[in-house]
Design goal:
Layout lengths: L1 H21 L5 H35 L15 H15 L1 H6 L7 E5 L6 H12 L2 E6 L10 H20 L3 E7 L15 H14 L8 E8 L7 H4 L4 E6 L5 H11 L11 H7 L5 H17 L7 H13 L9 H21 L4 E5 L9 E4 L10 H22 L7 H16 L15 H24 L2 H14 L1 E3 H15 L1
Parallel strand pairs: 1-4, 1-5, 2-3, 3-4
Antiparallel strand pairs: 6-7, 6-8
Helix pairs in contact: 3-5, 6-7, 9-10, 9-11, 11-12, 13-14, 13-17, 14-15, 14-16, 17-18
Keywords: ATP-binding, Coiled coil, Hydrolase, Membrane, Metalloprotease, Nucleotide-binding, Protease, Transmembrane, Transmembrane helix
Family: In the C-terminal section; belongs to the peptidase M41 family. Belongs to the AAA ATPase family.
Pfam families: AAA, AAA_lid_3, Peptidase_M41
């Protein structure tokens, strides 16, 4: 019917225009207005279509079930994976746990530093349980308009149920990243939009009936658990809190092997050595190390990644890209003595811990010493922390010994030293004993801080004075080569010590 009207209109309009011209009517304004109206109609229609497709496309892409990612493809989190899989078994073995009277879980909270694999574990959970997977970020629920966030929460749960029914699946997993954005602690007084969104989330979680299909499981992730509202953390909502922490050496090696599968490694490359040198790296940083190593190999037209490429990649991830700063020769000499001071103290208090000494600018640093911890540490004694402070003070002590004064290059070293002294105080490892920082005056804290740092600086200077020959043998080579490997530095160190003896 509409087609007939369209054809009649197409035939009638030209006839009408010809008749008006015949009657002497000026049709140019009519044609102009008609063209303008048609253009506006076309623009509105096109804009609406683009908005609908963009909005719909974004929504679909965010909630698309991920490609088949399994827990085997996630390395370095064996404990967290085991705990998570045990919780997910409540969905898979629903009838078995029902016989034992176990209440299925409604929510799982993944906590830990950025880049440790929380999102990957949520995606693997959907594959493990054969569930519909929908993902959203906490920031998506935050709007300046009141009620929008709460409405989006309702829509998310409604869509999860609808998709599970449509795809014939018994379970649906909703993953909310950055839950601290909407789940922060509520304050008294005027209601915020965040509070309404959180209230709606709590209501939806309370409305989950774990015995009814489709069953919904909420997995949330945050690296700021201390900011979350207590109503979210109680049993019956987020029942399990799973720590996804930085990997240990074994975990780092497993992650490196996973990301090295599609990269050619040269013969003799030791990923075990790389795992040792990357203490404190997250899974995302380890992936970045191998990616940067491949880029370095490509720059040199190499067909495989070699050990120096991995070493440079570690520096790149830690410090940033090597810069082309042209430093004056006297400034470069000061940097060389400064870094040798760090390296000499490190070799004295922890033999074998120096991995590299360089005066090549990288990122904001004019030079640096990369340390290779012999083993992962999670507990620190007073002696260990004092040795670490002495390593940090070694650069400034070397400058005072050679030049009679310090430079601004020691600023970061002093910040690290002060942080370690605070850690000692909070752990009861200083002369103040076990203290509550709020019950001790600032004057007492400053006196203890100064006493510790002054005593350690004197020890550091004394040790460096006894190793002047090491400076003499290493300085010229470091200035010429700009980079000394740990092995080369130790060879020069041992030779200098033997000659002075």
């Amino acid at each position: 019917m509409s087609k007939i009207y369209k054809e009649i209109g197409i035939g009638f309009i030209p006839v009408l225009l010809v008749f008006l011209v015949y009657q002497g009517v000026n049709v140019i304004p009519i044609l102009f207005i008609a063209a303008l109206g048609a253009s506006l109609f076309y623009m509105m229609r096109t804009r609406g279509g683009m908005g609908a497709s963009a909005g719909g496309g974004d929504r679909k892409s965010k909630h698309r079930t991920p490609a088949f990612l399994t827990f085997d493809e996630i390395g370095g989190q064996d404990r967290a994976k085991k705990e998570l899989m045990e919780a997910l078994d409540f969905l898979i073995k629903h009838e078995e746990i029902k016989k034992l009277g176990i209440r299925p879980l409604k929510g799982l909270l993944l906590t830990g530093p950025p880049g440790t694999g929380k999102t990957l574990m949520a995606k693997a959970s959907a594959h493990y349980t054969n569930s519909v997977y929908m993902a959203a970020s906490g920031s998506e629920f935050v709007e300046m308009y009141v009620g929008v966030g709460a409405s989006r929460v309702r829509d998310l749960f409604k869509e999860a149920r609808a998709r599970a029914l449509k795809e014939g699946k018994d379970n649906a997993i909703i993953f909310i990243d950055e839950i601290d954005v909407i789940g922060g602690q509520r304050e008294g007084g005027q209601q915020r939009e965040y509070d309404q969104t959180l209230n709606q989330l709590l209501t939806e979680m309370d409305g989950i009936h774990t015995n009814d299909a489709p069953r919904i499981l909420i997995i949330a992730a945050t690296n700021r658990k201390e900011m979350l509202d207590s109503a979210l953390l109680r049993p019956g909502r987020f029942d399990r809190h799973i720590e996804v922490d930085l990997p240990d050496k074994k975990g780092r090696l497993a992650i490196l092997h996973i990301h090295a599968k599609n990269k050619p490694l040269a013969e003799g490359v030791s990923l075990d050595l790389t795992a040792e040198q990357t203490f404190g790296f997250s899974g995302a940083q380890l992936e970045g190390v191998l990616n940067e190593a491949a880029i370095y190999a490509m720059r040199e037209d190499k067909l495989a990644i070699e050990q120096p490429h991995l070493a440079s990649a570690i520096d790149k991830v830690m410090m940033g890209e090597r810069t082309d700063k042209e430093t004056a020769n006297d400034e470069k000499e000061r940097v060389a003595y400064h870094e040798l001071g760090h390296a000499i103290i490190a070799e004295l208090v922890r033999p074998g811990s120096v991995s590299q000494v360089t005066v090549s600018p990288r990122g904001k640093a004019l030079g640096y010493v990369r340390h290779n911890p012999p083993q992962d540490h999670y507990l620190y004694t007073k002696d260990y922390i004092e040795e670490q402070i002495m390593i940090a003070l070694g650069g400034a002590a070397a400058e005072e010994m050679i030049y009679g004064g310090r430079s601004t290059g020691s600023r970061n070293d002093f910040e690290q030293s002060l942080s370690m002294v605070r850690n000692m105080m909070d752990s009861g490892l200083t002369g103040l004993g076990i203290i509550d920082r709020e019950m001790v005056t600032k004057d007492q804290l400053m006196k203890e801080n100064a006493a510790i740092l002054d005593a350690l600086m004197l020890r550091t200077k004394s040790m460096l004075e006894q190793q002047r020959s090491v400076f003499e043998h290493s300085f010229a080579i470091l200035m010429r080569e700009e980079v000394l490997s740990g092995e080369t530095f130790r060879t020069l160190f041992d030779a200098s010590v033997s000659q002075s003896a």
